Amino acid sequence: MRHTLCALPADATAARCARDVVAARCRVWQLDADSIETAQLLVSELVGNAVRHAGRANELTIDLTPSGLRLGVTDAQDDCALLPAKQSLDSETGRGLWLIDLLASAWGCEPDGYGGKSVWCQLHTTAASVEAVTAVDALASVSAA
Q: Which pLDDT does position 88 carry in this prediction?
């Protein structure tokens, strides 16, 4: 598994920062362009929801596992009662979790252990990119032994 943890700025640049970090990490992990674009959209929605409902997003976690890419955003609110909102087509807001539900293979919310929560989503990636990272990790652990 590959893991990245990043503190997010407490200002209007948080979503852009999260998108940039996700894209850079995904390129290092050799994910395909479609997965990178989808991951950027998903993390933008996660950060936007944290800022809108909790005042700010605290941290971003990015994990590449054999089952795909997992993105998580923590905030200071402990309310995990999340449901994708049904919005009219004319509404300018309220589609974030609906998009996450549509594009992610799984998503959810869990307490972060510090009085806040982490909202996360999972994105399936190409088998080749996950296998490549797994192989590199295996070689690194053999080299370290």
A: 64
pLDDT score of 40: 98
Q: What is the pLDDT at residue 5?
A: 92
Instruction: Say how far apart CA 124 and CA 103 lie, in whole Å.
Output: 10
Expressed as residue numbers, the domain containing 113 is: 2-144
What residue type is assigned to position 105 of the chain?
A: S
| SS3 state of residue 100 | helix
| Among 23, 19, 46, residue whose Cα is nearest residue 33 | 23
10-residue mean pLDDT series, the chain (145 residues): 91 95 95 96 94 90 94 92 62 76 93 92 76 60 62
Separation of alpha carbons 84 and 122, rounded Å? 16
Nearest of 107, 128, 131, 114 to residue 43 by alpha carbon: 107
Distance in angstroms (rounded) separating the CA atoms of residues 74 and 97: 15
What is the distance between the alpha carbons of residues 121 and 97, in angstroms, rounded to a whole number? 10
Domain tally, the chain: 1
In whole angstroms, how far apart are CA 52 and each of 29, 34, 55, 62?
30, 27, 6, 21
